[in-house]
Each structure stands twice: as structure tokens, then as C-alpha cells.
Amino acid sequence: MPLDQESVARVLGVEVPPLAGPIVAVTHDSRTVVPGGAFVAINGFTSRGADFVPQALERGATLIVAEQPVPGVPTAVVPSDRIALAALATELAGHPSDDLTVYGVTGTNGKTTTSYVLHAILSAAYGEAATGLMTTAEVIVGSEHELAVRTTGEATSVQANLARMRDAGVQHVVLETSSHGIHLHRVDGTCYAAAIFTNLTRDHLDLHGTMENYYRTKRKLFEWTAGPKLANADDAWGARLAREIDGTLTFGTDANADYRIEHERRDGAGTVFDLVTPGHGSLAVRMPLLGGYNVHNVAGAAGIALEMGMTPDVLTRAVLEMGQVPGRFERVPAAFERGFEVVVDYAHTDVGLRAVLEVAREVAGDGRVLCVYGAAGARDRDKRPKMGAVASELADVAIITTDDTYYEDAQDIASEVLAGADPANTRVVPDRREAIDTALREARPGDVVVVAGKGHERVQHLASGDVPFHDATVVTELLAAR
Ligand SMILES: CC(=O)N[C@H]1[C@@H](OP(=O)(O)OP(=O)(O)OC[C@H]2O[C@@H](n3ccc(=O)[nH]c3=O)[C@H](O)[C@@H]2O)O[C@H](CO)[C@@H](O)[C@@H]1O[C@H](C)C(=O)N[C@@H](C)C(=O)N[C@H](CCC(=O)O)C(=O)O
Ligand SMILES: Nc1ncnc2c1ncn2[C@@H]1O[C@H](COP(=O)(O)OP(=O)(O)OP(=O)(O)O)[C@@H](O)[C@H]1O
């Protein structure tokens, strides 16, 4: 809904220069300004949005919003550029979350998987057409799937997607909510009906500085959510969250958890466990996903679904019938006829890598685990040697390769990973396709090959530029070529 000067001033809470006409759109990126749109010049980590004001004006911006006046240009001066961006985006979209039931999922690991499980339960309860999902892997609106750009997009894309869902008749939305999303005000203006906290482990300290800050950022989601809230009791930060935020229930194996996981066991190609609930007795849950951590992901989603009024029958059926989560312990079918498993997984921290390799070990039984992995450039260097150590500890054959390097040198990153690894079972094969091929050639029946780090992603960000790369497709191509 276009905004006149008075509405813009009300939304921003500051004086607004005269406008040539109503504001029809808002963006933080000068390259996407449309005629009659507002440009919010953000003071970024690497560049200053103010430098792009000339381009924004050239493209037809009729309002400039910034934290400092832009010389020579009438500017709405706001206390926070990112808060202003979210406020305008929410108003222009017509506050879509007011008409939706939004489920927030946060935590360091397990957000995407938990979101997919919850989306499957919501689809079973209310129908596919009435459900939506925004995650790292995909945005789903009813039956339409598209690849996602970010875990939690900018406020403009969060609000636009919510509005698109509302307009398409969606009523229930799962919104994966990253700490970046919270810290950088990408989800301001979003009204959450329920929330899940999976866990908190070391990550993103380049943004948050300390674990305490990281935790407090995630806690905001629970502070905002009036409805049911569920935290992982087996995680010290989750237990603290439950103590600190009134009305928060817990899930986990902990004896005091409100939704208690019991008798977890492997069953054929999947996992079975009992979920002891406060209101529905003990439910036998059977799921196609493998791994103890996925039991937690399913328990969190199931608990919140029950709290939100869904029935045990619907949820147990939905979990039983759910498909693979893209890039999360995703089994590549092309490997089945060779007698070994190839698993593509998004694990890109030492904690994630440990989790996936422990499951791989269990699946391999007497077979071996071969792991192809690497660390991303331009972020959290401390985790590199830790990833090396984990891979050497849990894999029989570890192959360090290139992940997204961004501006860094691939060899330098590999050396830092190798510094924590055991050279006896580790080698470096910088080219990612060649590294995967090496593992596939060495795999024998009964083995499990884990290709970790990029999961669902379809692009490799290298210093020389972006190149298309999708691990599952590459595995399939390499196997077909043999
Ligand atoms: C570290 C981080 O989050 N960075 C975000 C930050 O970038 P920045 O401050 O460096 O932006 P900048 O490059 O300095 O540019 C400043 C401003 O100038 C604008 N600009 C720039 C160029 C131009 O030609 N015209 C123009 O207007 C930019 O749009 C921006 O608004 O602000 C930008 C605009 O809001 C974001 O796009 C950008 O996300 C980058 C792309 C990113 O990679 N973020 C990742 C780390 C992230 O958010 N990840 C989390 C998931 C984490 C997880 O759970 O694993 C996520 O939710 O996806
Ligand atoms: N509950 C969990 N606890 C620990 N590790 C997990 C858990 N769930 C998943 N993992 C591991 O972390 C990886 C990422 O899982 P998932 O994508 O579900 O988490 P995420 O929080 O969405 O991560 P990201 O924000 O980086 O996408 C998985 O591939 C697995 O290796």
C-alpha cells in the first residue's frame, strides 16, 4: 500500500522532506531502487549506503532515509537505518504477519531441519496450500518452491514473502530466524505466534563478539513471542532460556523436560523414539531421518505443534511420511546400487561435522567413513583446526577440500584446517569435484561417504568469482561417468 508523507513520518517517527508522490517501495540496495521508491542508505560493515545515493536518485528514488543527513539531498534522518528499513517494509507490505500464524525457529544448529519437520506437520494439518516456509534452503509458498538466498532475508524480502504468502491464501508460516536476522533487524515487524530454540554453540562470533551476546540476540525471539515457546533442555543455553523467559516449555532427554525423548533407536532406514508429552501421553514417533540430533529436531517441532493445537495422529503421520531435507543428511540415490552411501550435509562447523560424522559412523557399522570437507573463508577462523580434528577423529579417510573461500586463498584455509587434523588419515585435494571423485573411487560396499559443508547450496563463492556447484548433482554426475 503506497505511503504518503504523513504515513512515512508516522512510521519513521521523524520529520520527512516533502515527497513528489506516495512511496511505492523501499530498498537498502541502490541497484534495486524503483521509480517512486525509498532508498534507505545503510552504514554497512564494508561500505556506506550514502555513497550510493546518487545511483538511487538516478533510478528514481523519491525519498532518502539515513542516519546522517546526505549533503545536498533532502533526507529523512533516522536513529537506526535498519530499523527504519524494516518499519517501512512492514508498512508497505500491510503488516502481513498480523494475518498469519508465524512460527519462529532459532538456534545454532538444526533450524532448517526443525523448520522442515514443522512445515511437514503444518501441511498435514492444514493442507499444503495453507502453509509456507522460509529457510536457508528454500522458500515455499503453498506448492511453489524456490531456492533461498539467505537464512533470514532482509526485512524487505521477509515482509514481501510474508505478503506473498498471505495473498496466496497461506495461513501458517515457518520462519527460520537467524541471529543475523534478529541482530540486523531483518525480522522487526514480524509478529511471532510460537517459537523454538534448538541449541547454541560457538558460531558467528565475528558478528556477536561473545557467546553471551549471541545468546541474548537469540533470546529476543522468545521475548517477542507471546504464544507457546519451546527450548532444548539438553542444551545449557536452552535450559537457561527456559528459566529466564516465562512460559517457556522444554524438550529433550533431560528427566525434567516437558516433552521428553525416550527409547531412541535405529529402525531400518530411519529412527524411532517415544515422546512423553504433558497432554497426550507417550507418542511413538517413527521418522525417516537418521541421527540423534534429528530426534531433537523432530521433538521440538512435534512439541510446538501439539502446543499449537495439532493432534498426535496428524503429527506422527506427517513425520513418518516427510521427505528428505535438502542438503541435511541427504542420501544420494545414485550411490545405492553401488552398495555404499553418499550423504550430502550442510555441516560447516566442528559441532555440525561431529554430529553428522557420528551418525555416519553408526550407519557404516563395520564399513568405513570417508569425509570430504573444508572450511569457509572470511569468517570464524578458530573453527578451522577444530574441524580438522573432528574429521580425523571420526572419519577413516578425511579429504580436506575447498568450501566457499570468498576473498581468501583456498590453500591457506586448507592449511589451517590441516593444522588440527591427523596427517595419517588426512590429505588435501583443493578442487572440490576432484576431492569428491577421490572419495567415490575409494568407497567400497558398506562405506559411507560424507560430503560436508555446502548441503543444498548451488554456488561456490571463490576469490576468482562465483561458480555453479551443487554437491548432490556432482556426486550423481561422477557416479554416472564411471
Ligand atoms: C555480515 C552481514 O550480515 N552483512 C550484511 C550487511 O552487509 P554490509 O553491512 O557489509 O553491507 P555493505 O556491503 O557494507 O553495504 C552497505 C549498504 O550499501 C548498499 N549498497 C551496496 C552496493 C551498491 O552498489 N549499492 C548499495 O546500495 C548495500 O545494499 C547495503 O545496504 O548488510 C547487508 C544489507 O543489509 C546484508 O546483505 C549483508 O549480508 C551478507 C550478504 C551476508 O552474507 N550475510 C550472512 C553472514 C548472513 O546474514 N547469514 C545469516 C545466517 C547465518 C547462519 O545461521 O548460519 C542469514 O540469516 O542468512
Ligand atoms: N539439533 C542439532 N544439533 C546439532 N547439530 C545439528 C542439529 N541439527 C542438525 N545438525 C547438524 O548441523 C547441520 C545443519 O543443520 P540445519 O541446516 O538443520 O541447521 P541450521 O541451524 O539451519 O544451520 P544453518 O543456519 O547454518 O543453515 C546438519 O547438517 C547437521 O550436521
UniProtKB/TrEMBL annotation:
UDP-N-acetyl-alpha-D-muramoyl-L-alanyl-D-glutamate binds at residues 30, 151-152, 178, 186. Gene3D superfamilies: Mur ligase, C-terminal domain (3.90.190.20), Mur-like, catalytic domain (3.40.1190.10), MurE/MurF, N-terminal domain (3.40.1390.10). The keyword Lipid metabolism does not apply. Keywords: ATP-binding, Cell cycle, Cell division, Cell shape, Cell wall biogenesis/degradation, Cytoplasm, Ligase, Magnesium, Nucleotide-binding, Peptidoglycan synthesis. Pathway: Cell wall biogenesis; peptidoglycan biosynthesis. ATP binds at residues 107-113. One of its GO terms (cellular component) is cytoplasm. Residues 23-70 form the Mur ligase N-terminal catalytic domain. The modification N6-carboxylysine is found at residue 218. Residues 105-304 form the Mur ligase central domain. Its EC number is 6.3.2.-. Carboxylation is probably crucial for Mg(2+) binding and, consequently, for the gamma-phosphate positioning of ATP. Its cofactor is Mg(2+). Belongs to the MurCDEF family. MurE subfamily. This is UDP-N-acetylmuramyl-tripeptide synthetase. The gene is murE.
